[in-house]
Design a protein that fits this description.
alpha/beta, Leucine-rich repeat-containing N-terminal plant-type domain-containing protein, LRR_dom_sf, single chain, seven-stranded mixed β-sheet, Leu-rich_rpt, binds 2-acetamido-2-deoxy-beta-D-glucopyranose, RLP29
């Protein structure tokens, strides 16, 4: 009897406990009043451009605005607050985010920093102008992992508050690209502990030296600015993507003469870097546990002031399938046969000498190399085991056409006539034929020594046709 009564009481207790805890754990449905006030501020600082329909769901006049905000405001994602008392905005995407949308206009309100539970803040491309609020940096947004404000008209400096000690401790991705920012990268920005992806591309006016890279970045895109100085050393060995294209940087490339096992895209083009091409770029970057290295697929070093012979790839597979652009530099010596494994190779407008090794003819006729730009050098032949027009292989009179989609440009070299091309070559080089003969004997046997006479002084700086 007693045990029955006990069982009954026990079940009653359980039922009450369950009911009690269900009530306790009922998820909150109302957005915190402070976050709602920020959304109101955002909705009045930014506006749809004609053709954009983002803010039509943001209705503050309804009595249920505090519950609607998380359930039906476009771009707003909420989660329960730590004490489960109400909802907080954890992700905010401002703008429709579809390619055709013209996006938003207006300015970013500093009150965004009151959304202290935010982990993602994205402004889609549009015409939002004015400064990046200083308040977004510092300690206001400890949970923020992603901040993307790219493709707008934001101007002024990158706030120093972003680089303050302890600022944005969880920020993983910062994309401020394609705006109108100017001034230096604050010291410390590249030391934010969680930062892995930084895009400051195409602002135009960001300037000064690139500060030391003190964190294991994966992706760094600084192209299209006005940065000066050399590439910081050491570069994080973790890099997968690095672009500083189109700046005013200079110095040698020795920071790249190291192993970057995961690097797949490197673009240093259109600067004033000088000295040799780092040999390590053409060495297989094999991790001990792996058979095949992950391939660097794109290597762009064109339009710098690089000199010396091109380093030979340390094994034929080292550049297999890569796109390599070394054009418009001051490279000397002959073309290393190992580069014939590349998928596309641009070495035009250099000072290369000697014959193009037969490996290149094999690659272009096999179609494994689809583009070979070697015009505007001092090359003396296109060695081929195959019958080529003008070549000296067997059956030289038969002229096998290049495979469809393959382009080989050899004009303005020290060979007559260019054996292949020019279909598909740049218009500027299509009908140039050979280099004036006096320039060719003047180039003394690949040593880079210029001898005068026999037709006049040789200027290295050939006028572009
Ligand atoms: C943001 O927070 C500050 C400081 O707590 C406060 O003065 C301001 O009114 C808040 N802004 C909004 C829009 O809630
Ligand atoms: C780049 O910086 C130089 C000074 O270092 C300045 O004269 C030039 O106007 C800047 N260019 C741009 C596009 O900001
Ligand atoms: C390229 O290097 C040469 C030799 O070091 C130097 O004379 C020239 O000024 C450099 N050109 C540029 C554009 O930096
Ligand atoms: C080029 O130099 C090599 C060795 O340095 C020599 O054997 C060869 O005859 C030279 N060729 C010309 C055309 O001077």
């Amino acid at each position: 009897m007693a045990s029955r009564a006990f069982l009954f009481l026990f079940m009653l207790w359980c039922a009450e406990t369950i009911q009690f805890s269900t009530q306790q754990e009922l998820p909150p449905t109302r957005l915190s009043s402070s976050d709602l006030a920020v959304l109101y501020d955002v909705g009045h600082s930014l506006r749809d451009q004609p053709g954009s329909d983002f803010f039509s769901t943001w209705r503050f006049d309804s009595p249920s605005a505090a519950t609607d905000a998380c359930s039906s405001f476009t771009g707003v994602v909420c989660s329960p607050s730590d004490d489960n008392a109400d909802l907080r905005v954890t992700s905010l995407t401002l703008g429709e985010g579809v390619a055709a949308s013209p996006g938003l206009a207006g300015t970013l309100p500093p009150s965004l920093a009151n959304l202290t539970a935010l982990s993602q803040l994205v402004l889609t491309p549009g015409r939002v102008a004015g400064p990046i609020p200083e308040a977004l940096g510092g300690s206001a947004l400890p949970a923020l992992r992603l901040l993307s404000l790219s493709g707008n008209l934001l101007s002024g400096p990158i706030p120093a508050s972003f680089a303050a000690a302890g600022a944005l401790p969880n920020l993983h991705t910062l994309d401020l690209g394609h705006n109108r920012l100017s001034g230096p990268v604050p010291d410390g920005l590249l030391a934010m502990p969680s930062l892995r992806v930084l895009v400051l591309a195409a602002n135009g006016g960001l300037s000064g030296r690139i500060p030391p890279l003190a964190v294991p970045l994966l992706h760094l895109d600084l192209r299209g600015n006005n940065f000066t100085g050399s590439i910081p050393r050491p570069l994080p060995a973790t890099l997968r993507y690095l672009s500083v294209s189109g700046n005013a940087m200079s110095g040698p490339l020795d920071a790249l003469d190291a192993a970057f096992a995961d690097l797949t895209f490197l673009d240093l083009s259109m600067n004033a870097f000088f000295g040799p091409v780092p040999a390590a770029l053409f060495a297989p970057r094999r991790r001990p546990e792996e058979e095949v290295p992950p391939p660097l697929a794109v290597l762009l070093l064109q339009r710098n002031n690089l000199s010396d012979p091109i380093p030979a790839p340390s094994e034929p597979a080292a550049v297999s399938g890569w796109t390599v652009d070394l054009s418009h530099n001051r490279l000397t010596g002959s073309l290393p046969a190992g580069l014939a494994a590349a998928g596309s190779l641009f070495v035009n407008n250099n000072r290369l000498t000697g014959a193009v090794p037969s490996e290149f003819a094999r690659s272009v006729y096999a179609g494994s190399m689809t583009t070979l730009y070697a015009q505007h050098n001092y090359l003396t032949g296109f060695d081929s085991p195959l019958p080529l027009p003008g070549g000296n292989g067997p059956g030289a009179d038969a002229t096998p056409p290049l495979p469809d989609g393959v382009t080989v440009c050899l004009s303005y070299n020290c060979m007559v006539p260019p054996p292949v091309g020019p279909p598909g070559c740049p218009a500027s080089s299509a009908d140039e034929g050979s280099r004036p003969p006096y320039q060719c004997p003047a180039f003394n046997n690949g040593t880079g020594t210029v001898v005068t006479g026999g037709g006049g002084d040789l200027s290295w700086d050939d006028p572009e046709p």
